[in-house]
Predict the structure.
Amino acid sequence: MDNETIFEEFEDIIEVKYGHMAEDMLSFFNEFTIFFEEENLDVNKFTKKKIETLIDNYLDFEGLSDGECSLLFQTLLDFCDFCMGKKINYGFFKTFLEKRKDTLYDWWSEEEPLFSEDDFPEINPEDILENFDTYYKFMELQVKNQKLDIPRILDFLQTTYDVMILGHNKSQEIRKKYPDLTEEEYIQKFEQAIEKEQVSKDDFRDIEKTIFLLPKEQVKKFVTISFKISEYDKYKLGSPERKKVIEENIKRMKDLIDDIKKTNKKLI
């Protein structure tokens, strides 16, 4: 089977398996196919000696979000499985990827808010929530070797909830006490008021690895909350609309915490 036929068959499988996410996954995969074309190499002739050239010269992505890294990495793993299913030896490459996953992510990625719209540039939050089953299955693959730690997840969510409450209360206090502040002055006072209460990025990234071990509906609630946080800036500071959205999101977080506690009484 020639390269073109192999790649076309694989791309068809990805489109069926991942739906809306396939377009982004295959955009990364284009660089993989270019490697074989420019190196004048058959897919079944790929060897360990060629891995360095592939990674350094073709898969040399920079500044990817965590979501994009996951898309790229999973596409490569899927291609390995696809080839192995056709009795083409890609076990060595799959082993390389699995052993070097953290190194590859560090190279490809940059720090960004969890679940920002930039994670999947061609898919907006509404698309992800409407097609959540596919998204959930994909993210499950990223945490299949992780351990579910309910107390730690609850600790993180409770800390985040407390900061959300604090931030909202401080915002109202500042607006009431200093009604004539400019937007820049307000932001400065607000940041000073909550500076010591922020949740660390390390905690946030750690939770990203395990949150998808929760039941699907609880994960969907968490993702919804994360998306809503990213939408705060759509509303003018101090506006009734912004206040309403923030209060609704605080309620979502409280409901999620209560739901997790209710379903995990024996683990708390």
User: Anything to note?
Assistant: The radius of gyration is 22 Å. Residues 111-121 have pLDDT under 50 and may be disordered. Residues 212 and 219 are 6 Å apart (CA to CA).
